[in-house]
């Protein structure tokens, strides 16, 4: 930490990049992001509780988690703009407080309609604010260890999934309403952490200058930059085909995260044992992200092929889940699904970046997240509707696995197009290395 004298004569503390304080920032962002994503990733634990509490169908209850999960993606451009306009610290504080308030209000909900708006929409937006501000702040505080630090923040989603058994024990012990209030209180801790750690003043050790996390994204003229979306990305066939494929796949990819526990309980596996399946999903998902990231670093390996393999793993796992009749079978499914899920998420975002030229990458990522949010929102309710109509999840999982496999086949359309002007994976890595000070692009290097 170094000191600098402001114009008014007061001494301000300026933090150095890659310092001990930088790691405090990284851990604070990981805690806040992991806390918000843990509820979305473990919503399958909450689904049976809501069905019983409000005497609702699987379809109606599934909308609660789907709206929350999809809103965190859909509001990505809004949260990025807020970080630019108001600063990462303010955006993170608003995000944590929004999550806390939404959980506390939801704990008094008399029905699902209120939860659609308060938990689904409001909590989802708050989670999106936390995620974006955490990544942008972390990139400001690191230079030499930037990739490692942003990777740790990204791992918050996988780490958060590991608390599934704790979440189940909390619901069994004090009920879901009190559980929401307790988790809401934890968000107040996250709020304090981001308020203290997201100090806007950090010294750029590479150029020996001070940048501000609050104003570092403003233009020199004093006006605030606002990320715009360029429709030119839709004229790139490779990007369009990849986005269509990922959007179709997303309808079925996230279904197990919402319905796995309910299905296990119908088969005869206890709720407590079912919740431990998220430990396997979290561990293998984290491993899948690491493995796919390393594979895609190689110029000899196609990111598209790795993505298709991940979709095949997910689709086959979901189709074969009907063969699981005990805890061991479901544990095997969870391990396979988690590995495929981690690979799927990593390669999907790399493809969004990989199929367009550098100036279009922010727009490609924003469009990708917004369009995928629609698929995430409708996938679980459709699976719940099929389960309600058929009396079991067999048809639902057939539908989910089948649509993932169908989406994996869509990129085969590119075989009929002559390949030209496609940015290689190696060029992508070099591009991201050269733009470490670009906030909006840097947000995606973690993926």
UniProtKB/TrEMBL annotation:
Q: Which PROSITE patterns match?
A: MFS
How this chain sits in the membrane, per its record, is:
Multi-pass membrane protein
Say which species the protein is native to: Nematostella vectensis (Starlet sea anemone)
Q: Which residues cross the membrane?
A: 21-51, 63-84, 91-110, 116-136, 148-167, 179-198, 304-324, 330-352, 364-387, 393-416
Task: Please tell me one Gene Ontology term that the record gives under cellular component.
Answer: plasma membrane
InterPro entries (alphabetical): MFS, MFS_dom, MFS_trans_sf, Proton-linked_MCT
Q: Name one GO molecular function term.
A: transmembrane transporter activity
> Where is this protein found?
Membrane
Name the predominant localization.
membrane
Per its record, how is this protein called by name?
Answer: Major facilitator superfamily (MFS) profile domain-containing protein
Keyword annotations: Membrane, Transmembrane, Transmembrane helix
Domain Major facilitator superfamily (MFS) profile: from-to ranges:
22-419
């Amino acid at each position: 930490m170094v000191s600098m004298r402001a114009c008014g004569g007061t001494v301000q503390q300026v933090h150095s990049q890659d310092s001990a304080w930088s790691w405090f920032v990284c851990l604070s962002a990981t805690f806040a992001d992991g806390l918000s994503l843990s509820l979305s990733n473990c919503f399958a634990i909450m689904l049976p509780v809501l069905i019983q509490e409000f005497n609702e169908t699987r379809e109606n209850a599934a909308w609660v988690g789907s709206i929350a999960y999809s809103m965190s993606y859909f509001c990505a451009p809004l949260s990025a703009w807020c970080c630019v306009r108001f600063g990462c610290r303010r955006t993170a504080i608003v995000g944590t407080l929004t999550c806390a308030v939404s959980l506390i209000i939801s704990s008094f909900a008399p029905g699902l309609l209120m939860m659609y708006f308060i938990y689904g929409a409001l909590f989802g937006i708050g989670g999106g604010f936390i995620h974006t501000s955490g990544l942008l702040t972390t990139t400001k505080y690191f230079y030499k260890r930037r990739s490692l630090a942003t990777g740790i923040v990204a791992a918050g989603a996988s780490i958060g999934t590991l608390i599934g058994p704790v979440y189940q024990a909390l619901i069994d012990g004090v009920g879901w309403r009190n559980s929401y209030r307790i988790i809401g209180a934890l968000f107040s801790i996250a709020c304090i952490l981001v308020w203290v750690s997201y100090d806007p003043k950090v010294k750029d050790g590479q150029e020996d200058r001070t940048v501000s996390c609050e104003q570092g994204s403003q233009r020199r003229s004093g006006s605030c930059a606002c990320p715009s979306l360029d429709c030119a990305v839709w004229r790139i066939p490779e990007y369009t085909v990849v986005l269509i494929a990922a959007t179709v796949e997303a309808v079925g990819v996230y279904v197990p995260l919402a319905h796995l526990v309910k299905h296990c309980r119908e088969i005869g596996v206890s709720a407590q044992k079912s919740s431990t399946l998220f430990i396997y999903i979290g561990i293998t998902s984290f491993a899948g992200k690491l493995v796919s990231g390393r594979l895609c670093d190689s110029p000899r390996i196609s990111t598209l092929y790795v993505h298709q393999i991940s979709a095949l793993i997910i689709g086959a796992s979901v189709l074969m889940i009907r063969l699981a009749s005990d805890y061991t079978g479901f544990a095997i499914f969870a391990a396979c699904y988690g590995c495929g899920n981690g690979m799927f998420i990593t390669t999907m975002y790399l493809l969004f970046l990989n199929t367009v030229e550098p100036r279009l990458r922010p727009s490609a990522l924003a469009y990708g997240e917004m369009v995928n949010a629609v698929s995430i929102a409708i996938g679980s309710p459709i699976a719940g509707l099929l389960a309600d109509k058929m009396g079991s999840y067999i048809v639902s999982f057939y539908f989910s696995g089948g649509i993932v496999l169908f989406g994996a086949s869509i990129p085969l359309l590119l075989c009929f197009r002559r390949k030209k002007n496609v940015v290689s994976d190696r060029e992508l890595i070099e591009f991201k290395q050269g733009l470490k000070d670009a906030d909006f692009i840097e947000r995606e290097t973690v993926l």
